Amino acid sequence: STFRVNEAFLAADYSEDGVFDQKKLEEALSRAIGYGKRAVSENPSNFENHLALARVYESVAPLKVVGAYEKAVLSYEKASLLFNNYPPSLLARARLEKSVGNAQSAFYYAKKALSLKSSWSEALFFQAALLAESGNLQLALEKALTALESDNQNPNAWYEVGKIYFVAENWPKAEEFLGKAVSLSPNFGHALYILGLSLYYEGRQEESLEILDRVASLYPGNSSFVEEVMRDIKDGKDPFGEGVDKDKSLAPQ
Fold first, then answer.
1. 249: nearest Cα among 204, 205, 200, 181
2. Most buried one in 46, 146, 190, 194, CB count within 10 A?
3. At residue 32, does pLDDT exceed 90?
């Protein structure tokens, strides 16, 4: 049998009245690990079982759950022994490393995945994001544009390129690529949000507010951050002060 990660576990909200509930997370994690270990025990030669178990550990590694990172690494290594040089496994390992702040290791595993599957857009976008975070925006754009060539019907691909242009403060290009993402997926909240900010920095305040209002309507119970940005714009204030705070401006709604 093959163990599949319970998506509800990975996407669940482990909070109570807005406060993170460690016990709730630990109970769900314990159940997911139990299912994974059972599958590995029943069919230890199935590399997908080891990958799925690694993903469970990986999902909580950034939360500093004791031993999660080490156990994820061990499961990925066991999967590699059963299926060496499997690109999705290498990219999964790259994501794990990135999630705990190991950018150099993350780039190494993504590069290794691309050496086996050179035109893989998912890995190229992953590398582009790492490069953008390190400040190498030109190379990040080159990687992202290369990936877009083979994935141009994917709204997220246009979003990833637009996001890099936004970080580079090239507002017209950001508008172009984010606009295409929204044309492919009209309710793409993250793309709409950064598109709204790009329009603001182009000096198009009214259009910016219209877009940001659309974003707020998409998240009626979680729109306070967007509403705060809109208030600043209406008051004639740059919502991010002197220049664009890249981390804050790209925060999810």
1. 200
2. 194
3. no
